[in-house]
């Protein structure tokens, strides 16, 4: 693949890592990255590239003159360390030769050696040669890299120029557009615009030529299509990668299809007007021998897009060490096998590197390295993860991350996407070691955030050389609060019949032995209660003096009820506000179940002093016994729309009547708390549409699975808050 290698490659341990490759040597800046030594012949050092071209436009390169008295005149790299071929074992080297001959590249060390040769047939121009060292992928003892020009020939003393020694992962290149398209591309709905010059090379894609595709605004699925004619072999190479240059935040869908069916996946596009690489795991189709077509969809599901997208370097690689690795759904990025993050801001300062400090806290081999921007105005330089769609924080709402910091500082963790954003600071107390931080965002579980932001050394300008490491970014559940009552060491609360009236309100027996230690509750001790004569017989407990619903508005209780039982009502007693109650159905009898009582509507009440339980309220059942256990608090997990029946003529109220699907413009729509509550609209939640710039036909499209019946309901009503006077177009189609 012909590439322009950028002048600003990052040096890490004498090696430049960019996405999908390791640049061992590029001589940029007029200096060498490696320590070159000649045993025979002369290493002439770094020289100016006097004949730059499309293959190698670098300003500098290396030079070597062969010794005429040696048939195997050689030079090598010393003091590098061990070459890791476990993943990056496809080596490439660019050479400028004035004679037709050959080149031999060799790696050797205590682990043995491996060498490969390439014929030099083109002279007077830069040519890139490839060397497959995958056979040595398991060799961990290769410490020396040797180059032979004109090997086996005596009497030659030619000078050779060389540059851009790069290692890649193995795989199969389906399309790179260099020298023209390798595949025959067509279009469904939109238009394939052919091969164009790369308008803005970067570290992701420095190729000379790329492909272009323009969407048709009248269609919501525009396909770039290539039919290979023969089945693809996905048995090994099933991790598909593609470079995309997008003018707007959206998504890209990659699909393989044929007589064997199809497989597809979608990735969010957060970074615009810059090349990014997206990976699609198609290992599930490894045995499928009937996939012959490649389809790419930009902005899938969106009408109105007239954007032109650039794409390049479509290839497939082995899953390698990640084959069979467990999938961790809540892992955002572990920089190894569970890489689910789409980075926006700071993406070009983040690199996957070897763990600089393997320890008990973080035994991972690979981690993320973030190079904090330095100088004035960098105090809020950040790393941003963009989801585009709202995060579901209903259960997993604690952000856990491991960070290695070179200095004592403040780490700021922030959720964005709606206003106001929410941020939490953590002090970094220990330097030069891994520390695990847990950030509790559970109080904001009902919000519709879509971005996670990390500020390293927040509020302080970065200094040259500031490097932070990050790993195992994941969502977890909120830490459990100590149980209010579990009866294991006696009763923590005072329990008894309301007002101490045993005739009317029954008796409490406990702690006592668990009558049914199976299922979800195998505790030894529980509390049991026998109803009195009143249909509303009430068991009461006095709450701790520091009881609060702040952050944890839900009370959870394990209940064992006899056959025929139907409901449990929990009341919180406030001297100033009275009783606040929630009733839950008993979904199973004669076994332990957990009931969740959500008091989110009452978090502002601070003087709850007692808790009442009413079993089968309104039913006279004197002498009936129920058992309880494990009373605790948590974030709200109850569905606020539970039991709400759909009102079919309401399209969307952004609360419980969400009866239509948004198929167009969903990336610009968020459900937010109503920022303008008034008499005209007292709804708690509303839809917020962020109108994208330079897109005159951006909007919202909503659809239902059956045709809209306008025979009765044919007047469309909608409430809108707008920041300016503007026309609004309403359209029905289908």
What is the topological layout?
Elements lengths: L15 E3 L2 E5 L9 E4 L3 E7 L11 E6 L8 E5 L11 E7 L4 E9 L2 E9 L5 E7 L11 E6 L9 E10 L3 E4 L9 E4 L2 E7 L11 E6 L8 E5 L9 E9 L4 E9 L2 E9 L5 E7 L11 E6 L9 E11 L12 E3 L16 E5 L11 E6 L10 E5 L9 E9 L4 E8 L5 E7 L5 E7 L10 E5 L11 E11 L16 E4 L4 H4 L1 E7 L11 E6 L7 E5 L11 E7 L6 E8 L3 E8 L6 E7 L11 E6 L9 E10 L26 E4 L4 E5 L11 E5 L11 E3 L31
Antiparallel strand pairs: 1-2, 2-12, 3-6, 4-5, 5-12, 6-11, 7-10, 7-12, 8-9, 8-11, 13-23, 14-17, 15-16, 16-23, 17-22, 18-21, 18-23, 19-20, 19-22, 24-33, 25-26, 26-33, 27-32, 28-31, 28-33, 29-30, 29-32, 34-37, 35-36, 36-43, 37-42, 38-41, 38-43, 39-40, 39-42, 44-47, 45-46
Shape: elongated
Number of strands: 47
Structural class: mainly beta
Beta-strand residue fraction: 35-45%
- Mean pLDDT across every amino acid position: 91
Radius of gyration: 33 Å
Termini distance? 46 Å
Number of helices: 1
Q: What proportion of the residues is helical, as a percent range? A: under 10%
Major pleated sheet:
7 strands, antiparallel
Uncertain segments of ≥5 residues (pLDDT<50)? 1-19
């Amino acid at each position: 693949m012909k590439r322009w290698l950028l002048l600003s490659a990052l040096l890490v341990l004498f090696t430049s890592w960019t996405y999908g490759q390791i640049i061992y040597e590029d001589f940029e800046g007029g200096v060498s990255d490696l320590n070159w030594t000649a045993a025979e012949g002369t290493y002439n050092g770094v020289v100016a590239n006097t004949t730059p071209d499309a293959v190698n436009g670098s300003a500098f390169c290396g030079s070597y003159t062969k010794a005429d008295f040696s048939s195997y005149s050689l030079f090598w790299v010393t003091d590098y360390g061990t070459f890791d071929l476990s993943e990056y074992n496809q080596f490439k080297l660019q050479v400028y030769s004035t004679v037709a001959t050959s080149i031999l590249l060799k790696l050797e060390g205590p682990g043995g050696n491996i060498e490969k040769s390439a014929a030099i047939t083109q002279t007077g121009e830069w040519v890139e040669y490839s060397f497959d060292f995958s056979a040595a992928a398991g060799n961990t003892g290769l410490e020396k890299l040797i180059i032979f020009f004109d090997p086996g020939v005596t009497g030659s003393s030619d000078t050779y120029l060389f540059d851009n020694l790069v290692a890649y992962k193995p795989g199969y290149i389906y399309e790179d557009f260099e020298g023209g398209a390798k595949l025959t591309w067509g279009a469904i709905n939109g238009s394939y615009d052919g091969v164009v010059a790369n308008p803005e090379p970067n570290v992701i894609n420095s190729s000379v030529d790329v492909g272009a595709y323009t969407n048709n605004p009248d269609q919501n699925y525009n396909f770039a299509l290539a039919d290979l004619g023969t089945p693809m072999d996905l048995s090994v190479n099933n991790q598909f990668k593609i470079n995309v240059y997008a003018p707007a935040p959206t998504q890209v869908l990659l699909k393989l299809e044929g007589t064997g069916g199809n497989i597809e996946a979608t990735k969010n596009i957060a970074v615009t007007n810059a090349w990014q690489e997206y990976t699609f795991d198609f290992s599930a189709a490894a045995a499928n021998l009937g996939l012959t077509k490649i389809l790419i969809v930009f902005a899938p599901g969106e009408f109105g897009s007239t954007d032109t997208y650039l794409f390049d370097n479509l290839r497939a690689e082995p899953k390698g060490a990640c084959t069979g690795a467990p999938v961790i759904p809540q892992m955002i990025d572990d920089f190894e096998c569970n890489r689910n993050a789409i980075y926006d801001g700071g993406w070009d300062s983040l690199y996957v590197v070897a763990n600089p400090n393997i320890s008990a806290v973080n035994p991972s081999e690979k981690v993320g390295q973030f190079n904090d921007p330095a100088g004035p105005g960098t105090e809020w330089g950040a790393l941003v993860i963009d989801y585009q769609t709202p995060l579901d924080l209903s259960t997993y709402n604690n952000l856990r991350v491991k960070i290695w910091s070179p200095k004592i500082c403040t780490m700021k963790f922030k959720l964005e996407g709606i206003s106001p954003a929410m941020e939490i600071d953590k002090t970094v107390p220990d330097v030069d070691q891994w520390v695990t931080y847990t950030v509790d965002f559970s109080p904001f579980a009902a919000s519709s955030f879509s971005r996670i932001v990390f500020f390293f050394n927040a509020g302080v300008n970065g200094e040259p050389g500031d490097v932070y490491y990050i790993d195992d970014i994941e969502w977890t559940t909120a830490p459990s609060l100590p149980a209010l009552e579990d009866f294991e060491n006696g009763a923590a609360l005072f329990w008894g019949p309301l007002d101490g009236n045993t005739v009317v309100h029954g008796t409490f027996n406990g702690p006592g032995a668990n009558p049914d230690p199976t299922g979800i509750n195998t505790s030894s001790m529980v509390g049991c209660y026998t109803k009195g004569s009143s249909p509303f017989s009430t068991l009461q407990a006095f709450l701790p003096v520091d009881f609060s619903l702040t952050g944890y508005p839900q009370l959870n209780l394990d209940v064992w009820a006899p056959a025929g039982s139907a409901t449990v009502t929990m009341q919180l007693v406030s001297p100033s506000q009275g009783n606040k109650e929630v009733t839950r159905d008993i979904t199973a009898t004669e076994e332990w179940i957990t009931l969740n009582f959500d008091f989110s509507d009452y978090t502002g009440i601070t003087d709850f002093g007692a808790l009442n339980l009413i079993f089968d309220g309104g039913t006279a059942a004197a002498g009936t016994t129920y058992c309880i256990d494990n009373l605790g608090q948590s974030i709200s997990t109850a569905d606020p729309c539970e039991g709400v029946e759909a009102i079919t003529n309401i399209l969307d109220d952004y609360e419980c009547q969400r009866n239509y699907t948004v198929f167009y413009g969903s990336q610009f729509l968020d459900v937010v708390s109503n920022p303008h509550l008034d008499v005209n609209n007292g709804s708690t939640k509303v839809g917020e549409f962020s109108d994208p710039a330079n897109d005159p036909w951006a909007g919202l499209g909503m659809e239902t699975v059956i045709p809209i019946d306008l025979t009765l309901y044919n007047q469309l009503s909608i409430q809108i808050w707008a920041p300016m006077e503007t026309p609004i177009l309403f359209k029905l189609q289908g």
